[in-house]
Write a structure and sequence with these properties.
This protein has 162 residues and is mainly β. 8% of the residues lie in helices and 36% in strands. The protein is built from 2 helices and 9 strands. Strand 1 (9-18) and strand 2 (24-27) form a beta hairpin. It binds zinc ion.
Length: 162
């Protein structure tokens, strides 16, 4: 009998994530598939839910809504002076940066534009607010070890690095 994805299985996935226009945003590479522990929220909830019960070897196209994916958009991008960043910081569009507020709380944001004296920062994950079709193939399945269940993530090649 073919094995199916249920809680406490370690799942190896090959995946291709596309945007609304069908352009590839992210993809697992040959030889480095994604490993996760099912039921432990290692992956976005929308994808995990749709993988429940899928058989080993099967492929599905999961549709991940913002609510169950990278979240709704939470604000607008804004321009800030370049000198708010350390002079020697190597900044690039697409980079994620973490700032801290007065209370030391972390505020993650993304750099979306750079000019000589201004940086455009966006509080949204680049995929926030998007409904994304994700093609996934279940390459293999195995029972999680007791230690993996306890930790809530897989070990071994491709697993949690510790
Ligand atoms: Zn561990």
């Amino acid at each position: 009998m073919t094995d199916k994805i249920t809680a406490n299985k370690v799942v190896t996935l090959a995946y291709t994530l596309r945007d609304d226009d069908g352009e590839i945003i992210d993809q697992s590479r040959d030889g480095s598939p994604l490993l996760y522990l099912h039921g432990a929220r290692n992956i976005v909830p929308g994808l995990e839910e749709q993988l429940e019960g899928v058989a080993e070897g099967a492929s599905i196209t999961a549709t991940v809504s913002p609510e169950k994916g990278y979240g709704p958009r939470i604000g607008e991008a804004q321009e800030v002076p370049r000198n708010l960043f350390p002079a020697d910081a190597e900044l690039a569009a697409g980079m994620q940066v973490v700032a801290h507020d007065d209370q030391g709380r972390q505020i993650p944001f993304f750099i979306t534009g750079i000019t000589e004296d201004k940086i455009t920062v966006d509080p949204n994950h680049p995929l926030a607010g998007e409904t994304l079709p994700c093609e996934v193939t279940v390459e293999s399945l195995r029972e999680a070890s007791d230690e993996e269940s306890e930790h809530g993530h897989p070990h071994g090649p491709g697993g949690h690095p510790h």
